[in-house]
Amino acid sequence: MQTHYEFGHIWVTEADDEIKAELFYSRSKAGKGFEITELRKTADMQDSGIERQLMAGMMDYLKSQLWDWIDSYQGRPFLSADGRYDVMGFMQDFYGEVFGVDITDNLTGMVDQMTAVPLDALIPGDAVFWGLETEPHQVAIYLGGGKIMTVAVSDGKIIEQALQRYDQPSFARTLR
C-alpha cells in the first residue's frame, strides 16, 4: 500500500491505485489545530487499524511543512494586540499550524502538555526552555544545528539565532 498526501486529505492505495482508505481534515473553526471531517475505508479495511496509519500520515505531512512555515515567519513582527512581545502566541501558532495541536497560553502549562526529551536528543520542532521546569521563563523552537527560533524581546520580531554557549536551554519538551 502507498500513502498519498495533500493538505486536508490523506489516502492509501493498493498497487492498482484503488483507494482503500482516506481521511479528510480541516483547520478547526476555533482557528487552532485541526479536526477530522471524514474517514472512509473499504469493507476489507474495517478492522485493519488503518486509522492509525492515516493519522500518522497526517502528522508526517504537517511536520514536512515545518521549513516552509519557518521561512514564512522569519523576520515578521509577532506582537499581541496591545503591542507587546508575545512568545506564547508565537508558540501557539507554530504548534497549531505545523503539528495541528492546541498549546496552552502559558509556559508552565506548555511544559506539562508536552513530553520531556533530553537536550542531546533534540530534533527540529522541539521546544527548548530556560528556567526551572516548574517556573520556566523563556521558550524557543529548536531548528537543528544548534539554532532556535523565537520572538525577540527588543522588537517583537521572529528571529532565528544560534544557541549561545553561555546561555544554553535548561530543558526541552516534544510532541513526538
Topology:
Layout: E1 2-6, E2 9-13, E3 19-27, E4 34-41, H1 50-64, H2 66-73, H3 87-99, H4 107-113, E5 115-117, E6 127-132, E7 135-144, E8 147-151, E9 158-162, E10 171-174
Antiparallel strand pairs: 1-2, 2-3, 3-4, 5-10, 6-7, 6-10, 7-8, 8-9
In short:
The protein starts with a strand and ends with a strand. Helices cover 24% and strands 34% of the residues.
Account of the protein in words:
- With 176 residues, this protein is an alpha+beta fold.
- It has 2 domains: 2-71, no CATH class; 77-174, endopeptidase domain like (from Nostoc punctiforme) (endopeptidase fold (from Nostoc punctiforme)), CATH 3.90.1720.10.
- Helices cover 24% and strands 34% of the residues.
- The protein is built from 4 helices and 10 strands; from the N terminus they run ββββααααββββββ.
- It has helices at residues 50-64, 66-73, 87-99, 107-113, and strands spanning 2-6, 9-13, 19-27, 34-41, 115-117, 127-132, 135-144, 147-151, 158-162, 171-174.
- A 6-stranded antiparallel sheet has the order 5-10-6-7-8-9.
- The longest helix has 15 residues, at 50-64.
- The chain is elongated and about 55 Å long.
- 20% of the residues are buried.
- The mean pLDDT is 82.
